[in-house]
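Exercise (ungraded).
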Amino acid sequence: MKEIILAYQGEMALKGLNRGTFESVLLKTMRRRLKALGEFKVYKAQSTMYAEPMDDGADVDKAFDYISKIFGIATLTRAAVCEKDMDAIRRTAVEYLREQLAQAKTFKVSARRSDKSFPMDSMQISRELGGTILRAFPHLKVDVHHPDVQVSVEIRDYAAYVHGGKQQGAGGLPVSTSGAAMLMLSGGIDSPVAGYLMAKRGLSLSCAHFASPPYTSERAKMKVLTLARELTPYTGNLNVYVVPYTDVQTELRDRAPSDLFTVLMRRSMLRITEQLAQKEGAKAIVTGESLAQVASQTLMALGCTDAAQMLPVLRPCIGMDKTEITEIARKIGTFETSIQPYEDCCTIFTPPHPKTKPELEEILRAEQQVERLAELERIAAENAECVRVNVGE
Ligand code: ATP
Ligand code: MG
């Protein structure tokens, strides 16, 4: 029996946004992600994406898992392909869903007929197939509201497809259809979640990570690259810029008032990220900040940080509690890596009493005292090492 993966679109079809572009991005993404899994034919018909295995080596289990993480796909299912013939449909449904139906107590049939030349309408198909299933599995009952198994038949242009119900996909919009942004990726819990959330809204991402050796270790950097790798099933391949930040940071420590150190550092990180954004053609910066989580995330501190450069700063975690952020981190699989205890440049040299309500004027004055700041920032941006992190490596 031939099995195929069907993926259905969500929001992009509903909103009537630029549908053609969205669909072609989605097809390209699917092709790219499935490349390593054997030969698949990926195509679109009637707003549904098909991934059809073309030889025995094609890994359908893995393909299904990969496709379930591609943004822009609202629901998906594995389905058996059969002839557009009622007897073939009956046989296929009983055989393909045997295990599921044997274990279930209740079921329901739903039929969709987009090929109107098929001689029966969807009501008739459902009734016929329901009867067949009741005869083959006499222990089953029909439950139209909460069935254990939803037996589904779709009569489409090329064939009929039989499956046991759709599963939720990753949702959102296809990556890159909303443009590009720089994700400031630390080793913490929040920033990978922020990256995931913005990729879900259709942004393609590159990452900036600030490292201050010898205060931060090689292992801290490896941890961040692992986090980036864990994001790639959602974001696609990532460029991660590792910024040598020690000189900027020690200069700020030595020359600026210590209670303003954290905000000054955050401003300088954003300016460097802005320079990297130019290289990557990115039009926004994404961070994992959450209001009032730490001293640098008070309203006043965020205001001062925003004023450091021109790009919009997107903070998808801003209104979330740590528990909510953690829940997403677990779901997407970054949590276990994030809690490994390595130092981050943001937590070295932190003053004992950071100002929680800094005024922009005093910040600008303090910055002027650090004469070489702009120069050191430019050098840091220029010397950033670009590490390419690919899906599935
Ligand atoms: P996270 O859990 O993501 O580390 P956090 O709650 O620890 O966040 P901060 O350390 O204040 O908060 O950092 C706030 C945000 O600044 C992070 O979410 C991240 O986007 C960015 N950031 C912090 N440290 C770094 C770093 N070393 N490199 C790049 N970005 C960083
Ligand atoms: Mg952090």
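Further reading is listed at the end of the chapter. For now, observe: The two ends are 32 Å apart (CA to CA). The pocket of adenosine-5'-triphosphate (ligand 1) is lined by residues 184-186, 188-191, 208-210, 287-289, 293-294, 296, 344-346 (CB under 6 Å).
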